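Morning F.,

Quick status update on the modeling queue. The single chain you submitted on Monday has been processed. Sequence for confirmation:
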Amino acid sequence: MWSIFLSGLATALSLLVVDLVVPGITINTITAAAIAAGAVGIVNAFVKPFLQTLTLPINTVSFGAFSLFVNGLCLWLASLFVPGFYVTGIIGFLVGPIVLSAVNTFLGNYLDKKAPAFMKDGSELNAARNPSQLPNSSATPMTIKESELSTDGSSQV
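Structure tokens below.
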């Protein structure tokens, strides 16, 4: 649940950065950026696989360069459904998805590392409670032999 929220937050913030950097992409409000993040996610989940399959021969001949056009088309399609989010011009169409992807990757990795443990999948919390769930843990309890203890306060190793 939290990972979806963090992904959406990273996409919304990335769209705001793209608005600042790329001419041809305009986002009027932060609310429009949040809605646009959802629209981009929905278009990428449902429309993009269909378009990639449909354009596979052209993409193969162009050695993958046609995927830039498909990404631009998906970003433009998402802008059709969100008021306050506009993609215009060839620079916004082709460069916008590249910048969006780069910034989104950076922000996604940053938020993933800096997010509190409760916002993640919970594996860190469970591992803290039960060390046997750690991947490289032998999870054997440490025992101290009576012969290792001394009465003068020093320890023998």
